[in-house]
Automatic annotation (TrEMBL), chain A:
Pfam families: ABC_tran
Every ABC transporter domain range: 3-211
Coiled-coil ranges (or none): none
UniProt record, GO biological process: cytochrome complex assembly
Cited InterPro entries: AAA+_ATPase, ABC_transporter-like_ATP-bd, ABC_transporter-like_CS, ABC_transptr_haem_export_CcmA, P-loop_NTPase
Protein name, UniProt field: Heme ABC exporter ATP-binding protein CcmA
Name of the coding gene: ccmA
Keywords, comma-separated and alphabetical: ATP-binding, Cytochrome c-type biogenesis, Membrane, Nucleotide-binding, Translocase, Transport
Lineage start: Bacteria, Pseudomonadati, Pseudomonadota, Alphaproteobacteria, Rhodobacterales
GO molecular function: ATP binding; ATP hydrolysis activity; transmembrane transporter activity
From TrEMBL, chain B:
TM annotation in the entry: 12-37, 43-64, 96-119, 125-150, 157-179, 191-213
GO annotation, cellular component aspect: plasma membrane
Pfam families (alphabetical): CcmB (PF03379)
Recorded GO MF terms: heme transmembrane transporter activity
Organism name: Aliiroseovarius halocynthiae
Family indicated by similarity: Belongs to the CcmB/CycW/HelB family.
Name the record gives this protein: Heme exporter protein B
InterPro entries named in the record: Cyt_c_biogenesis_CcmB, Cyt_c_CcmB_bac
Location(s) in or outside the cell: Cell inner membrane
Keyword field contains Zinc: no
Broad class of where this protein is predominantly found: membrane
UniProtKB/TrEMBL annotation, chain C:
Family (UniProt): Belongs to the CcmD/CycX/HelD family.
Transmembrane segments: 12-30
UniProt keyword annotation of Transport present: yes
Gene behind this protein: ccmD
The species this protein was found in: Aliiroseovarius halocynthiae
Biological classification of the source: Bacteria, Pseudomonadati, Pseudomonadota, Alphaproteobacteria, Rhodobacterales
Gene Ontology cellular-component terms listed: plasma membrane
Designated name of the protein: Heme exporter protein D
From TrEMBL, chain D:
Ranges of residues in domain Cytochrome c assembly protein: 4-183
Phylogenetic lineage: Bacteria, Pseudomonadati, Pseudomonadota, Alphaproteobacteria, Rhodobacterales
Example of a GO cellular component annotation carried by this entry: plasma membrane
Family from the record: Belongs to the CcmC/CycZ/HelC family.
An example molecular function term from Gene Ontology annotations: heme transmembrane transporter activity
Protein's UniProt name: Heme exporter protein C
Gene Ontology biological process: cytochrome complex assembly
InterPro entries, A to Z: Cyt_c_assembly, Cyt_c_biogenesis_CcmC, Cyt_c_biogenesis_CcsA/CcmC
Keyword annotations from UniProtKB, A to Z: Cell inner membrane, Cell membrane, Cytochrome c-type biogenesis, Membrane, Transmembrane, Transmembrane helix, Transport
UniProt subcellular location: Cell inner membrane; Membrane
Taxonomic source organism: Aliiroseovarius halocynthiae
Name of the encoding gene: ccmC
Pfam family, one: Cytochrom_C_asm
Length: 213, 218, 51, 244
């Protein structure tokens, strides 16, 4: 499953943030998304995940093929690690959580309520969720926050084996994960009123931004 | 969908508050009213169906903002939105979980609390029946209100304001059916009207609520 | 002066309240319109300078 | 040129700017004479006495209260279906006018009710329906006020308006049903048609036209303000993004 994006404009609060984006994420590929804070990486990932509509353009991949790993892990404090994982697995129609548990070294924590986990352990559990979705395209927003060096390695291994199995990943991060990856800098796509625009972009903005005076 | 329902029920049981809160509030209302109105059995038994209905409605209102707010805050709602469950399904399951946690216990408790209010013999049955049919509508309408206000800070007060007028038809028909049934008058018209509202809410409001949720996640 | 009989209070109070509310609504609308126009003009000016 | 072209705020601003003085003028020449006629130059009614003079503010405001909600429903639907920017701002702009009309109808009704029925408030179906309508207006406006992003607010309030309308109609039936069930036969509502003869009807008609024109004039001004606010919001967001 390939994720292709052409001439995509994403907006936050109705205002274009990034425009004219074009890239392809093929199976087996890792793409690192970089750019300063507030440059629209999260907005882009949410748009790709289908949580918000793009202002212009479209995303070629089916949202059913994509899983989104956000800042927040979506864990329930009163449920145990195992219950949390089993829940997400069954939502996605899977039942085997063993690879996820082993991949992120959670075996010893299974019975613990996730309220009692450390920040890094929570993050590992949040990342383990990716494996139980069974979806090929991962969109990850700062996945390594609060992970120690050993856990980062675990994560990098998980991405590597996911990619080796024909999956792909788009990762917004500021650190070097030691992965074989291409880099996509969002800086050049920053929305700018002075940039020459194509007609369809113009139409989409026209309702308020350009035409109103 | 079943996994989501099981999870929500489990959360409600573990977090406390869930089952207890609505019931406790209901108990408080029905014990306080006689102190306020006076102990005259005649008056109490006449107003009992109405008081029980208002009490159940307020108890229901109390826990509405939890329907989506917690999932929104910890990011689960984003993840659920990208999961292979349609948004309408999420809304329906959430409303069902809310009903199982508040509406159903209230329905079961109402006949017992009716005794405190000198509710007459057929009244126990009628209050049970009307609440059983009416409370699902309260949960569904409440889920719609919760979906509208999910992203807002201090959404609780706003939620009550939005949901209040939406509850009025259900309340009128429900309390009317209970009152008439208790008095031995024909009650099928208000009962059918209320059943209609419940059926309509369950059939249509998930779409409105899902639309509101999608907007709020944007 | 018009003789309103026993309804004097009712008529005068309802008319006063109504006219008061309508005038208040007109004033609020007008004031807000002016304020917003000023703020928008200022913002447009800033936007032009920034470009 | 189709109606949809006014989805473009520029065109709407241009046109509404031209129309506005005329509407204000027309409003002045209908509303003020209408009110003066109704207040000073109508005879005493046999059954209401002079209290009939309240009709000139009570009936138009009550009609506007309902009509404005219907207008908001239609404009909200247009927004949901066509994402017509002017439409949803007009709905927002109308809400405050609508709630004022509702309050006027309620207050004048209560004041009128005191001498006629001996009580300020009765749970009469009409009065109750207006109270419920008032709650709907409040909720709608509170939701607008609570949300920062104008487009999000537009979407959510439109959904609320549509769902609320269904429940408002349900409430109307429920309330009729409920009151009938409690006080049999003691209907307090006034049957206007029967009592209104031409002497009262002509100034009433003028007042109705006046109130409608006042609504249109206020609506145009307020919609223009709302559109400017949207533009202002976008500019401010851009500024903030530039700073970041």
């Amino acid at each position: 499953m390939e994720l292709r994006v052409e001439n995509l404009t994403v907006a936050r609060g109705g205002v274009p943030v990034l425009e004219g984006l074009a890239f392809t994420l093929s199976p087996g590929q890792v793409l690192i998304l970089c750019g300063p804070n507030g440059s629209g990486k999260t907005t882009l990932l949410r748009t790709l995940a289908g949580l918000q509509p793009p202002l212009v353009g479209s995303v070629s991949a089916d949202p059913e093929q994509i899983t989104y790993g956000a800042h927040a892990d979506g864990l329930k404090a009163t449920l145990s690690v195992e219950e949390n994982l089993r829940f997400w697995a069954s939502v996605h129609g899977l039942s085997d959580i063993a690879p996820a548990v082993d991949g992120f070294n959670l075996r010893g924590l299974l019975e613990r309520p996730s309220a009692n986990l450390s920040a890094g352990q929570k993050r590992r559990l949040g990342l383990a969720r990716l494996l139980v979705t069974g979806r090929p395209i991962w969109l990850l927003d700062e996945p390594t926050v609060s992970l120690d060096a050993a856990s980062v390695t675990l994560f990098a291994d998980a991405v590597r084996s996911h990619v080796a199995g024909g999956g792909s990943a788009l990762i917004a991060t500021h650190i070097d994960l030691g992965l074989q990856a291409e880099t996509l800098d969002v800086g050049p796509f920053k929305a700018n009123a002075n940039r020459p625009r194509s007609d369809d972009q113009r139409d989409a903005y026209a309702d308020f931004d350009e035409a109103f005076l | 969908m079943i996994a989501l329902l099981v999870r929500d029920l489990r959360l409600a049981m573990r977090a406390g508050g869930g089952f207890g809160l609505g019931l406790a509030f209901f108990l408080i209302v029905s014990t306080l009213v006689p102190f306020g109105v006076g102990p005259e059995a005649k008056i109490l038994s006449r107003i009992a169906p109405g008081i029980l209905w208002v009490g159940a409605l307020l108890a229901c209102l109390l826990s509405l903002d939890r329907i989506f707010q917690l999932d929104f805050e910890d990011g689960s709602l984003d993840l659920l939105a990208t999961a292979p469950i349609p948004m309408e399904g999420i809304v329906t399951v959430k409303a069902l979980a809310h009903w199982l946690v508040t509406g159903l216990p209230l329905t079961l408790a109402a006949p017992l609390l009716g005794m405190l209010m000198n509710l007459e013999r057929p009244g126990h049955f009628w209050i049970f029946l009307t609440l059983l049919i009416g409370t699902p509508a309260l949960s569904m309408i409440g889920a719609f209100g919760a979906a509208l206000t999910v992203g807002l800070k201090r959404g609780g007060l706003l939620l009550s304001l939005l949901v209040l007028p939406l509850y009025i038809p259900t309340l009128i028909f429900g309390a009317e059916a209970a009152t008439r049934g208790t008095a031995g008058l024909p009650a099928s018209t208000p009962l059918l009207m209320m059943a209609g509202i419940t059926a309509g809410s369950i059939a249509l409001l998930p779409f409105a609520a899902a639309a509101a949720l999608r907007v709020n996640l944007r | 002066m018009l003789e309103l009989g026993k309804y004097t209070d009712a008529i005068l109070s309802s008319w006063t309240i109504t006219l008061g509310l309508l005038i208040a609504l007109i004033l609020v609308t007008w004031r807000r319109s002016v304020q917003v126009k000023q703020r928008l003009d200022a913002a447009e000016e800033r936007a032009k300078q920034n470009d | 040129m189709s109606l949809w072209e006014f989805a473009n705020p520029v065109k709407f601003m241009a046109l509404s700017g031209k129309v506005l003085p005329w509407v204000i003028g027309l409003c002045t020449v209908t509303l003020i004479p209408g009110l003066i006629w109704g207040f000073f130059f109508t005879p005493e009614a046999s059954n209401f006495g002079n209290s009939v003079k309240i009709i000139y503010i009570h009936v138009p405001s009550a009609m506007m209260a309902i009509n404005i909600w219907v207008m908001m429903l239609v404009t909200s639907l247009i927004w949901v279906v066509r994402r017509h920017h002017v439409s949803v701002r007009a709905a927002k702009a109308a809400a405050l006018i609508g709630v004022t009309m509702t309050v006027i109808a309620l207050i004048t009704g209560a004041i009128w009710g005191q001498p006629m029925w001996g009580t300020y408030w009765a749970w009469d179906p009409r009065l109750t329906s207006f109270l419920i309508l008032f709650l709907f207006y409040l909720g709608y406006m509170a939701l607008w006020a609570a949300i920062d992003n104008p487009d999000t607010a537009a979407d959510l309030t439109s959904v609320l308006c549509i769902v609320g309308s269904v429940f408002a109609v349900l409430s109307r039936y429920a309330v009729n049903f409920w009151n009938q069930g409690l006080h049999q036969g003691a209907s307090l509502s006034l049957d206007k048609e029967e009592h209104v003869s031409d002497v009262y009807f002509q100034p009433l008609l003028l007042c109705l036209a006046g109130f409608t024109l006042l609504f249109v004039a206020l609506l145009l001004v307020r919609t223009r303000t709302e559109l400017r606010l949207v533009r202002l919001h976008r500019l401010e967001v851009r500024e903030r993004m530039k700073d970041a």
